[in-house]
Design goal:
heterodimer, A: mainly beta, 7-stranded mixed β-sheet, B: 6-stranded mixed β-sheet, 5-stranded antiparallel β-sheet, globular
């Protein structure tokens, strides 16, 4: 059974039209991540949450926002998508308990965003 | 800031050959991950390495970690075509700095 679920799998949005991507998890992990991955590139960390503490990467554009209303859900909001924001967006979770047996990080299937 | 360097970026191998992918990172870290990614797909977890000297093996892949050298290796033994994919290492600093960051990836092609 999928443990990290991203919706939708494919999203087409118009240039400048706000869009929200969602991620849910059944693992009760306290850390959640959002990554942007463009073709033939490595995943780039946009931000991550440690519980409710939000950590924004210095080079993440202001156009990208995130919300984590509870442990299970996390959202990525793109306020005014540009053509350069077309990418695969990946959500991941992990447990931050150092030394814990449950150390694996799990990724969702990703949302492929197209901007037209 | 944590930096993760991976090499080689491209690797073309003959079936049956062995090779090693290297992953260096710049600061003390809590966990090191290896992932596989097929075209158009998400990331598949291969290994998580926690401590110095850790070695894990799954099929034809073996990963190791040297925390003193800040180096991890992914060794491929007797490569087969099905191993063709992109392999990423990622490092998590932990200790409340859970910023899991990726190397550039190694695109592996195994030829018959």
């Amino acid at each position: 059974d999928a443990m990290v679920i991203q919706n939708p799998r494919y999203q087409v949005t118009q240039f400048g039209k706000p869009v929200t991507l969602s991620c849910s998890q059944t693992l009760n992990h306290n850390v959640m991540y959002w990554y942007q991955q463009k073709s033939s590139q490595a995943p780039k960390l946009l931000f991550h949450y440690y519980d409710k503490d939000f950590n924004n990467e210095a080079d993440t554009p202001d156009n990208f926002q995130s919300r984590r209303p509870n442990t299970s859900f996390c959202f990525l909001d793109i306020r005014s998508p540009g053509l350069g924001d077309a990418a695969m967006y990946l959500c991941a979770t992990s447990s931050a308990m150092t030394g814990a047996e449950d150390t694996e990080a799990f990724f969702g299937q990703g949302t492929r965003l197209t901007v037209v | 800031e944590l930096k993760v360097e991976q090499n080689p970026l491209f690797l073309s191998m003959q079936e049956g050959k062995n090779y090693t992918i290297y992953c260096n990172y710049s600061t003390t870290s809590d966990r090191l991950y290896w992932y596989r990614q097929d075209p158009g797909k998400s990331l598949e977890s291969l290994f998580v390495l926690l401590s110095n000297g850790a070695v894990k093996q799954e099929g034809r892949l073996m990963a190791s970690l040297d925390t003193k050298a800040r180096l991890s290796t992914l060794h491929i033994t007797a490569a087969v075509h099905d191993l063709s994919a992109t392999y990423f290492c990622a490092v998590d600093r932990g200790y409340n700095n859970n910023d899991m960051r990726f190397g550039a990836g190694t695109r592996l092609t195994v030829k018959p």
